[in-house]
Write a structure and sequence with these properties.
about 300 residues; alpha+beta
Length: about 300
């Protein structure tokens, strides 16, 4: 496996979809990047004299939090006849683990999959940690797409990009050496003292949101974007469209003056015989509301 192949995955559509899910969960919808422009003589200009309302709705956050609250709100309960085992399980599945599991569940809905790594700490205590889905590339069994046989984790350490490959045989760490992966370390899944050990199976657990590990944003982004755009458009119309516009004939203006005068003076100047008229302007908000209700 080459570094180029891994970088292609980490910069590809699947990881970009994860980042987009993160952005929408944080309320950073695409509508916030929209600018109102006009084309004059084949050149594009920003409209400085018109409103540019960019109203982002946190629908994704609301849906994700509802799902996690429904599935993972209750504390763990353990049932066993072995009292000693019950005490150990209660100590392991504590409030901190529940918070971690909620965060992984949130990763699963927002990014399509969440990851949990199992390991021992320096004191020999069994621990778990959450991995960012954007940094993990799963390796599936070619004969069974539901079975993960390994994973590659990419991260930076002291300014150097590290590729960490996890398999049932252990962990290998690589760096990018001219497009080739150069091994810098081989070890077991965990280390106690100076000795490395391996689990009998891969100590990485993937929590999928669905069978295809696709995030919720992939299904509802067009609806959110349309809702944001329509609400922002209506806000712009209400701010920029006066109830009445004066039409002044006998004066010629360029397109930029046209927009500025309409926005600031509520006047339109056209080159004809001298005259002044009042033009009534109505905003059809009802049609927009009907469309939003359908969404």
């Amino acid at each position: 496996m080459k570094a180029e192949e891994l970088d292609r995955y980490f910069s590809g559509a699947r990881v970009e979809e994860m980042r987009k899910g993160r952005a929408y969960y944080a309320g950073q919808n695409d509508i916030l990047e929209r600018e109102r422009t006009i084309i004059i003589r084949k050149s594009t200009y920003k409209l400085k004299h018109l409103s540019n309302n960019r109203i982002a709705h946190p629908f994704l956050r609301k849906l994700v939090d509802q799902k996690i609250g429904y599935l993972l709100a209750q504390p763990f309960s353990t049932h066993t006849d072995d009292e000693a085992l019950s005490e150990r399980m209660s100590a392991f599945f504590d409030k901190a683990f529940l918070r971690q599991l909620k965060a992984i569940g949130r990763d699963a809905v927002v990014c399509g999959a969440g990851w949990l790594a199992v390991h021992y700490d320096e004191e020999g205590q069994l621990k778990t940690r959450r991995l960012a889905p954007e940094t993990v590339a799963p390796i599936y069994d070619p004969e069974d797409i539901d079975r993960i046989i390994g994973a590659v984790r990419r991260y930076e350490q002291s300014g150097t990009q590290i590729y960490e490959m996890w398999t049932a045989e252990g962990v290998q760490r690589f760096i990018n050496d001219g497009g080739e992966l150069q091994s810098i370390e081989e070890r077991g899944h965990f280390t106690i003292g100076d000795t490395s050990y391996n689990w009998e199976r891969l100590p990485l657990i993937q929590f999928r949101y669905n069978a295809d590990a696709r995030p919720l944003i992939s299904l509802i982004k067009p609806l959110i974007d349309d809702y944001d755009a329509r609400v922002s458009d209506v806000a712009n119309l209400l701010a920029d469209t006066p109830n009445n516009v004066k039409l002044v004939k006998g004066h010629v203006e360029d397109p930029e003056e046209f927009v500025r005068n309409l926005a600031t003076l509520n006047c339109l100047f056209i080159g004809d015989g001298g005259d002044i008229q009042n033009l009534e302007s109505k905003v059809d908000v009802a049609t927009h509301e009907a469309h939003l209700n359908r969404l």
